[in-house]
Design goal:
The longest helix is centred in the N-terminal third of the chain and has 13 residues. Helix content is 25%, strand content 52%. The radius of gyration is 14 Å and the shape is elongated. The chain has one domain: Ribosomal protein S6/Translation elongation factor EF1B (Alpha-Beta Plaits). It is of the alpha+beta class. It has a four-stranded antiparallel β-sheet, covered by helices on one side.
């Protein structure tokens, strides 16, 4: 029999330069490709930064509640690190 994979809950907060829906879809695709599930998503809107981040003065904030297998977390972080449209992210357990 195959080994059962346990999903853990995580909170993902990320900032994009543009608030376009395609950016959100891309993040959701990253999670789904890793067999994860987006349980809840919330948009916090556009906010001005105290200091420039990647030469941007403002960004769009999003919060996702996700379930993901622990071994897949590093791969998700790698994808988020390589995505130039993500200005910052925070992944919490």
């Amino acid at each position: 029999m195959g080994q059962k994979i346990y999903m853990k809950p995580y909170e993902l907060i990320f900032i994009t330069a543009s608030g376009e829906e395609k950016e959100e879809k891309k993040i959701q695709t990253y999670i789904k490709d890793l067999s994860g599930v987006v349980e809840k998503k919330e948009s916090w809107g556009k906010k001005t930064f105290s200091y420039p981040i990647k030469k941007k003065r403002s960004g769009y904030y999003f919060e996702y509640q996700i379930n993901l297998a622990a071994p897949q977390v590093l791969e998700l972080k790698r994808k988020l690190d390589l995505d130039e449209s993500i200005l910052r992210y925070l992944l919490l357990t």
